[in-house]
Amino acid sequence: MPDELLLDKPLTNNAIPSKEHPCSDHREKLLAIADTMDVINGKWKIQLIGIFLFQGKMRFGELLKHIQGIGAKMLSKELQHLEANQIITRTVLQTKPITVEYQITAYGRTLERTISDIVDWGTNHRRRIMR
Amino acid sequence: MPDELLLDKPLTNNAIPSKEHPCSDHREKLLAIADTMDVINGKWKIQLIGIFLFQGKMRFGELLKHIQGIGAKMLSKELQHLEANQIITRTVLQTKPITVEYQITAYGRTLERTISDIVDWGTNHRRRIMR
DNA sequence: CTGTATCCTGTAAGATACTG
DNA sequence: CAGTATCTTACAGGATACAG
User: Fold this and answer.
1) Percent with pLDDT over 90 in chain B
2) How many Å lie between the alpha carbon of A12 and the closest alpha carbon of chain B?
3) Residues A68, B21: C-beta atoms closer than 8 Å
4) B68 and chain A: CB distance < 8 Å anywhere?
């Protein structure tokens, strides 16, 4: 399942500007945006990435408790998606019963800058909108 | 409607880590992420912002044609959301019939850096995942 | 402990028709 | 032209039960 990648043609389900589009100069940019959003979008993905950035390794059960409100199904699904996108690795430890550690990859860390921007903008935005 | 702002308490509907959360150091960061995502998330919002950044003023009908696949309802809704978040302005021109121009605000342009990061990361990500 | 399978629901988004 | 109203659909996400 990891190796199939969920990556059909575009990396995302979101609307992609068509090639026949008037200004195809921006098409590529919008496509790139869609590709990033595919990794970041949704209710849990980016929060998950944030946690992997801020903390280190985490086990499934820890994540389940750590992430307020997520269920096993969603967590599992999102972890697979992140793994498919090479953002995290999944390591099975031969304990009994087995345990699994997830941790961010070096590549995953390349999201750090973007996420940091997102954090900064959000912090400022809240201040601005609240008053 | 613009002035009600859709901003209840958190700026987003997404899950927010609770105050009682184990590591409340990161709570603020995760909240900030959620706030940004509220502006960026969804099928159309960020694409819309991108267009306003790359192009200049646009009218409703132009946007409708420009954005592959969007319908009037969604466009209207997203524009209101962006206006409520002070990302764009809406100007009614006294033509007959009336026309309306939307354009990004100076504040909206503060998203430029973040979006630029998102574009860059997405561009690279596609290359990486594709091979 | 780490998941998957199944079923169920709520919300995002689309289609269509209509108005100032 | 620039939307809104209404109805419908699709899918993300949740609850529960169960398996290796």
Assistant:
1) 73
2) 10
3) yes
4) yes
